[in-house]
């Protein structure tokens, strides 16, 4: 089973590795660059063509990323997903994956969005308790989220 893997969160000088990439102080294979975002080929890909979309400025988590920037990050990911499908890389499908916090698997405290080409038998799986929940439980969850907005 392939899984998202550990990589150092900082450079040898203690700088956030994704800030260093975004500023050009660390090497990367860029597939997108604009004033606010970069997208790079992942150093340790789940599958060939695995990309990361990173804001150039440091935002540790999704909550600290301005809403407009979050929308732009997903727009870039959508454009890159379409580009991956046009390449000759093996890509039958795409996963967008954003881990927000350690318990979700975020290893580098700089918000980033994975764009992962997928194909049958690639070995990447997410395991969970996928059982159907009761209508009462779903209603209770919905009420709590609505109240917290």
TrEMBL record:
Motif (Histidine triad motif): 110-114
PANTHER family in the cross-refs: ADENOSINE 5'-MONOPHOSPHORAMIDASE HNT1, HIT FAMILY PROTEIN 1
Location of the HIT domain: 17-125
Keywords of the record: Methyltransferase, Transferase
Record keyword Ligase present: no
One record GO biological process: methylation
GO molecular function: methyltransferase activity
Pfam families: HIT
The protein's name in its UniProt record: HIT family protein
Taxonomy, superkingdom: Bacteria
Organism: Amycolatopsis plumensis
This enzyme's EC code(s): 2.1.1.-
Lineage: Bacteria, Bacillati, Actinomycetota, Actinomycetes, Pseudonocardiales
């Amino acid at each position: 089973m392939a899984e998202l893997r550990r990589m150092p969160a900082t450079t040898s000088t203690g700088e956030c590795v994704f800030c260093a990439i975004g500023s050009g102080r660390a090497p990367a294979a860029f597939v997108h660059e604009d004033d606010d975002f970069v997208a790079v080929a992942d150093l340790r890909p789940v599958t060939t063509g695995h990309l990361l979309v990173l804001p150039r400025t440091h935002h540790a988590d999704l909550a600290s990323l301005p809403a407009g920037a979050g929308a732009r990050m997903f727009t870039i990911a959508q454009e890159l997903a379409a580009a991956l499908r046009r390449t000759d890389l093996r890509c039958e499908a795409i996963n967008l994956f954003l881990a927000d916090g350690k318990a979700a698997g975020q290893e580098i405290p700089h918000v980033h969005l994975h764009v992962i080409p997928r194909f049958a038998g690639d070995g990447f799986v997410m395991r969970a308790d996928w059982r159907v929940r009761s209508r009462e439980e779903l209603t209770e969850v919905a009420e709590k989220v609505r109240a917290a907005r």
